[in-house]
Amino acid sequence: MVDVLVIGGGPVGLFMAALLLQAGVSVRVLEQRTGAEPHSRAIGLHPPSLDAMEGIGVARDLVAEGVQIRRGLAVGGGRTLAEMSFAGVSDSYPYVLSLPQTRTAAILEQCVRQLDPAALHRGVRVKHLNDDGGRVTAEAVAGGAAVRYTAAIAIAADGVRSTVRSQLGTPVRAKDYPDSYLMGDFADTTGFGPDAALFLAAAGIVESFPLPGNHRRWVVRLAESGTGGDVRWLVDSIRQRTGIDVDPASNSMLSRFGVRSRLVHRMVTGRTVLIGDAAHEISPIGGQGMNLGWLDAVALAPVVLASLHGKHVGVQLRDFEAGRKAAAARAARQSEINMALGRPLPAGPWSLRNRAIEAAGAVSVVNGFVARRFTMQ
Ligand SMILES: Cc1cc2nc3c(=O)[nH]c(=O)nc-3n(C[C@H](O)[C@H](O)[C@H](O)COP(=O)(O)OP(=O)(O)OC[C@H]3O[C@@H](n4cnc5c(N)ncnc54)[C@H](O)[C@@H]3O)c2cc1C
């Protein structure tokens, strides 16, 4: 019997565990994978998340490994239409930190292990949760054998296909979008340095972000679902839409993704709370999903502590749920705007849109507002 079971040892579950362990709570993290997740999905860490990482003492490690993106450029028709500086968005971290999710998760895992070497249980797949009103028992499988864990509270951070969410029968508001993208990491030969660049091409947007080790991530909107999908197509599309040559031999990651959003009706059911992608899936365009999950954890930690100290937390839980669902809905709307701006357009509307972006970018109040929205402030 421990205080809290965290189901899922992704970036959100690990961060949640670290917050609670640091406050003296006994925690077990149950993670089905035996080793680290190999794919680097998220790369952008926003200022509020870096502030939160300070709380568990890992901000410095993250910043030491990442690239500080202090500026975003909107490029169209071969010229810079707008520059967005992140200088004014935060006193502590006036940038978006670019670091592959694999490294972020590794740093969080190390932090959890330092706080309690016995906290993370890998190779444990949770099949069922049973809430008897006084405690929660997780029925799981580890190495082919059935195992059980019992706790006062369960926090499910088990991702977009959440077993716990399905088992609770939590209703979900779902939306599928027509957009799909191909993303790949390559050696950086652009000269953009630490700047992010959005190429507003008529054929569809191309996003380009710096990565550590002089690499860059490229994300290209597919012309229509079903076309494109290999390194050659990606490199050719980058050249056609941006004029930039990327070396296909330097490709180190390639991934194609479609876009959906999901938002649960309830994050809290009895003694179980859903957080991270298990509670809300957001389009990766705009890079908010992981950050949103961390901020769920920041909001939930004091409520869990109060509950473990015997306080009645009904009102706090309702406020937590309402606040985090509203934040997820805001992030989903923001990503819809980002996706809409990147869709292909015929020549006339394309040039009108780019002129509008250029005009808006020249107004410092608008520029500052977009920078704050973009960095989740
Ligand atoms: C292409 C792409 C790019 C992205 N870029 C960004 C970005 O730049 N910035 C950003 O903020 N977000 C981004 N995201 C979103 C981000 O990757 C997710 O929001 C983030 O991974 C969510 O973390 P999580 O811990 O909630 O879930 P996950 O990372 O999915 O972790 C869930 C964990 O639970 C484990 N698990 C699942 N079921 C069980 C079970 N039954 N028992 C035990 N363990 C279980 C899984 O093995 C997994 O380790 C991107 C996503 C994609 C697809």
Distance between the termini: 39 Å
Average residue pLDDT: 93
Counted by DSSP, the helix tally is 10
Classified by CATH, the class of the largest domain is Alpha Beta
The fold-level CATH name of the largest domain is FAD/NAD(P)-binding domain
CATH architecture classification of the largest domain: 3-Layer(bba) Sandwich
In total, the number of domains comes to 2
Major sheet: 8 strands, mixed
CA-atom Rg in angstroms: 21 Å
Note poorly predicted spans: none
Secondary-structure element string: EHEEHHEEEEHEEEEHEEEEHEEEEHHHH
Ions, cofactors, ligands: which are bound?
A: flavin-adenine dinucleotide
Describe the structure.
With 377 residues, this protein is an alpha+beta fold. The chain folds into two domains: 2-43 and 100-171 and 265-339, 3-Layer(bba) Sandwich (FAD/NAD(P)-binding domain); 177-259 and 345-374, 2-Layer Sandwich (Alpha-Beta Plaits), CATH 3.30.70. Helix content is 36%, strand content 30%. It is built from ten helices and 19 strands. It has helices at residues 11-22, 47-55, 59-65, 101-115, 163-168, 231-242, 289-308, 314-341, 347-362, 364-374; strands spanning 2-7, 27-31, 44-45, 67-69, 71-76, 79-85, 96-98, 120-122, 124-131, 136-142, 145-156, 172-187, 196-199, 206-211, 215-221, 253-264, 268-269, 272-274, 280-281. The strands form three sheets. Strands 1, 2, 8, 9, 10, 11, 17 and 18 form an eight-stranded mixed sheet that branches. Strands 6-5-13-14-15-12-16-19 form an eight-stranded mixed sheet, with helices on both faces. Helix 1 packs parallel to helix 4, helix 1 (11-22) packs parallel to helix 7 (289-308) and helix 7 runs antiparallel to helix 8. The longest helix has 28 residues, at 314-341. It is elongated, with a radius of gyration of 21 Å. The chain starts with a strand and ends with a helix. Flavin-adenine dinucleotide (FAD) is lined by residues 7-13, 30-33, 37, 41-44, 101, 125-126, 157-159, 163, 183, 255, 257, 276-277, 284, 287-291, 293. Flavin-adenine dinucleotide is lined by residues 7-13, 30-33, 37, 41-44, 101, 125-126, 157-159, 163, 183, 255, 257, 276-277, 284, 287-291, 293.
